[in-house]
TrEMBL record:
InterPro entries listed in its UniProt record: DUF503, TT1725-like_sf
The protein's name in its UniProt record: DUF503 domain-containing protein
UniProt cross-references to SUPFAM superfamilies, sorted A to Z: Hypothetical protein TT1725
Length: 93
């Protein structure tokens, strides 16, 4: 069994925490439904223009687990063109 984690640092087009919450909840909710992964905002909760999101997947195959997380990153990049991915890190837990 392999456990992989994707950590994304994002710049958001939000001026308030309320706008940020709408963007982050949309990304997390759709990701849970589409990719069946665990995900949460893990840092920068008090900064309206930034967010750190984490996504975790478990698989019996190392390659498949990593590919799922790579697809999530691409999906966010394509689905939210106004959200900038500042940094990305995929690691095995």
């Amino acid at each position: 069994m392999f456990i992989f984690c994707l950590e994304l640092h994002l710049d958001l087009p939000a001026r308030s925490l309320k706008e940020k919450r709408g963007i982050v909840k949309s990304i997390l909710g759709r990701c849970r439904n589409r990719f069946n992964t665990a995900c949460a905002e893990v840092d920068r909760q008090d900064a309206p223009g930034a967010a750190v999101l984490a996504f975790v997947t478990v698989s019996p195959n190392k390659v498949i687990a990593r590919q799922v997380l790579e697809r999530i990153e691409e999906w966010i990049y394509e689905g939210w063109p106004d959200v900038e991915i500042v940094a990305s890190d995929i690691s095995e837990v």
